[in-house]
Design brief:
Layout (H helix, E strand, L loop, with lengths): L19 H4 L6 E2 L4 E3 L5 E3 L15 H22 L6 H12 L8
Antiparallel strand pairs: 1-2, 2-3
Amino acid sequence: MAEHLPQTPSAPAASAPYRRSEQLTPPPAVPVSEVAQTTFEHVYEVDPRLMQQHVLQQVFPNWDTLRIMRSRADHLQWMHQHFASTVISGSEILAEVEAEAAPAGQPLR
């Protein structure tokens, strides 16, 4: 009688072949302000032209940029759980700054 060995599942196939040149060339940047640009959806970065003197830019593969972007909410949640006694949203801070900057008697936007 033949022995039945457990079948090991095959590894999933790559969705696309890895081509180093493709991974080191991000999509064309789209300016979003005078100092910022976006390459991937929801990925904002300082315009590299402004980062040439003091902080040189590193070459980042596209997959690593996307990995970092996808995990930033988990990282921020972990940091809040371990180090923050209170979490304040950016909109709360902006509202407070605008209220302090508004002349007395003028309504905020």
